[in-house]
Amino acid sequence: MAAMAVKKMAKKAAKKLAKRSAGKASATAPKKLKPKSGAGDGLDLDPKRIEELLKRLRAAYPNAECALHHRNAWELLVATILSAQCTDARVNMVTPSLFKKFPSPAAFAAASLPAIEEEIRSTGFYHNKAKSISGAAKKVVSEFGGKVPETMAELLTLPGVARKTANVVLGVAFKKAEGVVVDTHVLRLSHRLGLTSAEDPKKVEEDLMRIIPKDRWIAFSHEMIHHGRQICVARKPRCVECPLETLCNAPDKTWSSH
Q1: Which of 22, 51, 147, 166 lies at a C-alpha separation of 20 to 30 Å from 254?
Q2: In the annotation, is 164 catalytic?
Q3: Catalytic annotation on 203?
Q4: What pLDDT, in 10s, does the model give residues 208-220?
Q5: Residues 12, 164, 200, 215: which is the catalytic one?
Q6: Catalytically annotated residue among 19, 24, 175, 183
Q7: Long-range contacts formed by 218-221: CB under 8 A, 24+ apart
Q8: Domains and CATH numbers, the chain
């Protein structure tokens, strides 16, 4: 009995010692801190730096424009819907025959979903895209006289149209700057360049609208998209070729001069 009691006491002592050691380890281990906005979050919103960024972007891409082929606002709207999770190059391969078969909003509105799906299948997610295009066509015909509306509020009532698509149509087709286009390229570059710490595209847009002059909103988006495709790619950005490199402190840079 005495031996059993000693063993029990030894086990209890070992457990206490283990708990004590674990407590000390957790107290001294580095804690994972959640990113905070403002100082220390990697943002650099100095007006002079922003001005220089815009100057260099304009110099690097003086003729930047929308890469989606279109002849009018409706075709641009359709092409932009199709570009979700798809390359512009692929969309441009699909739209010529698509618009030949359905040359107007009325033609799309009268078409069956399977007919539209068959034409856009290679762009991916074609079931949802066909529904959006068909729904948008019917609303454009029934509520807007067959013409694409020219305001953000009205565009957002169309099926399949969120702020990115609306901004593309407003900026490119109507030359109206009501916001900043935030696609995957603009989102990625805005983080790398320390222009925002937000993840939600709408909040990113709001941040960009606060720091980018309104008369640069349209061109800025095109320039950022071109830069994201050519230089600041998602994997292994070509920092050694980047005209913005000296203004960038991204943690995933592949080369740095400073």
Answers
A1: 51
A2: yes
A3: no
A4: 999 999 999 999 9
A5: 164
A6: 183
A7: 218/171, 218/172, 218/175, 218/177, 219/58, 219/64, 220/54, 220/57, 220/180, 221/167, 221/171, 221/180, 221/181, 221/182, 221/186
A8: 47-64+180-247 (1.10.1670.10), 73-173 (1.10.340.30)
